[in-house]
Design a protein that fits this description.
By secondary structure, the protein is α/β, with parallel strands linked by helices. It folds into 2 domains: 137 residues, 3-Layer(aba) Sandwich (Rossmann fold), CATH 3.40.50.720; 173 residues, Dihydrodipicolinate Reductase, domain 2 (2-Layer Sandwich), CATH 3.30.360. 31% of the residues lie in helices and 28% in strands. The strands form 2 sheets. A 9-stranded mixed sheet has the order 14-13-12-11-7-10-9-8-15. A hairpin with a 4-residue loop joins strand 9 and strand 10. It is globular, with a radius of gyration of 21 Å.
Amino acid sequence: MTATSHAASDAVSDAVPAGQAPLRVGLIGLGSMGRHHARVIRATEGMDLVAVADPGGDRFGVAGDLPLLDSVQALIDIGLDAAMVAVPTVFHEEVALALAEAGVHTMVEKPIAHDAAAGRRVAQAFSSRGLVGAVGYVERCNPALRALRERLDRGDLGEVYQVITRRQGPFPARISDVGVVKDLATHDIDLTAWVAGAPYAQISAQVAHRSGRETEDMVVATGRLTNGVIVCHEVNWLTPFKERLTIVTGEKGSFVADTLTGDLTFYANGTVPSTWDQVAAFRGVSEGDVIRYAIAKREPLAVEQEAFRDAVRGVGSRHVTMDEGVATLNVVEAVLASADSGQVITL
């Protein structure tokens, strides 16, 4: 699936064909994300959570009446149709490759692996066996971004000029193995290419280390997509408020998607002519109508799991593929390379 291979309005199925048994699903990684995946898998029609594993224990009480397993092999031995991987990033490759070898369709939390080379190995392992491999870029399932993509696809903004994202907030205690680029900024890189319908052509970035950790905690990245859209990402763990905004500007105005609230607002270019000659001579825009859309809001994780379920069933292709996950990780590595070298990186 490419960034332009489907319209955002395509509905995700919420039903299972009659006569089909639920998918036997295993979950490995019972931390901050794993506990939510467990809850959603249990609530998703057509999915049956049959096994959970985490060698570090079950501090959130996710297992319930299931035995707590200590390895991916123990999980595989239960007998699975599909699996969800929510272990720390450094273990993604090891766990995903074991599941591929066992013939288990798998979704891996973002990013696909700790580096692009590992991501390519994981993607190849699943594609070569004809298995569904997905990456958990849940922001694509946010109602605000789905509504935004739908409106862009039908031309409501006209030509798209620019995408700006701001993803800021306090440091999350759940993170221990990667910096803010591989944790948070990877969301913005994925969603920007998806929303704008084109991959990255070049990127330039600056990072900062202000919290005493080995990895970076602030990044500002600017770049250009292959279709000419310019982009800017501001991401950090050092802002004392939480912000999750995607702003898309084009010939007819700007869309602002707030993924914290799931709201989408359109700021239209004004159509009232100016009689002030100095202003009228500037080929720009003026403020027009503002519309905040009433859109259906479902939990993004539920939409994501349904998309994965449907892909495994062979009745949908709305999941984020592992090839897309690798493409995003290539850009992530280019961001870090640019910050290190001070150079613009061409992809």
